[in-house]
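Minutes, project check-in

Agenda point 3 was the complex the collaborators sent over. CS summarized: two entities, 336 residues total, and the question is how they sit relative to each other. Sequences were read into the notes so everyone works from the same version.
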Amino acid sequence: MTDPHTAPEDLDARLTAAAARAAEDTPGVASLRPRPTAAPRGAGGGVRVRRTRTPGGWRLHAELRLAVHRTHRALDVTRAARAAVTTALRAAHPADADADADIAVTVTVTALV
Amino acid sequence: MAMSPESGSPGSPRDVAHTLPCGRPLEEVWDAWEADPAHAAADPHTARCPHCTAALADLRSLDDLVRRGAARDAERAAGTAEPVAAGVTERVMDVVRTELRPGASVPLGDAGEDTWIVETAVAHACRAAAESVPGVRAESCRVLPLDAAPERTPARRGGRLPRGPVRVRLDVAAPLDAERPVPKIADAVRERVRSAAADRLGLDLRAVDVRVLDLLDDSPEGE
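CS then shared the predicted structure for the full assembly.
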């Protein structure tokens, strides 16, 4: 309804995939799996993106659950992941939405591997 | 809000057991599988339940990882005198702890940041740092808000600590060593834990309470 070209669920899937890719590509991120025993799979494992309408446009809230490599400082990895995911979400969110999306990213380190 | 005083046994593991959507505790499935994999898989409930089946599949892949890890360790240890079993067991226990008892989330970074790390990961890093002091064996490790009342462990299950600085309460066994009195060893442990928290995690750790619960006399004979 808000976007003539994309069904909302497609957009949600696309945003989640974009966020997952950005997080996975962040140096020091070992995996997005919230559970270390689960087999590695495509995007989406430890990422959830929620989209809500606000008076001024959209609010996107991404939740990341990351396993971080011991070779990296955990806090630095989370900051880099947040920056990458924010950029990716901004790029993936349709530009023809009425206004810039307000983007928030929660990051939880679930394991050091 | 009633805050029940701490009861005798601190944090029974069952308190935070992970329950599958079918109602079975993951630990129970795990235990059954450990006791007898074939029997566990043949259990009528387990065989039909998608949650239990998935849990068992996860366990098998973990088992696989462990076996491969063990083989690698064995290769590596072939040239050295390093004990193989210890490394594998330690790694398995890390995974188990993280998997089944992730504990609370601990704030990471500045006050305004929405960044967290699970308590088990912090505890593991702190225990490893403590054990880098020769002869020290780390035991229980808890992460608490800096202003937490001493000797009281707030009950929380999978919740979040308030944002702000934290303290770590670490129990260790220290070596019985005439050259190094216990307070000196405790200082060394504190120092290692502090720098690990700062350099490896980025945790705002302001206090490390070290309790030496045991003295280990395992100096090799004849030295």
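Noted in discussion: Strands of chain B lie at 105-107, 115-118, 137-145, 166-175, 205-216.
Follow-up: revisit at the next meeting once the mutant set is ready.
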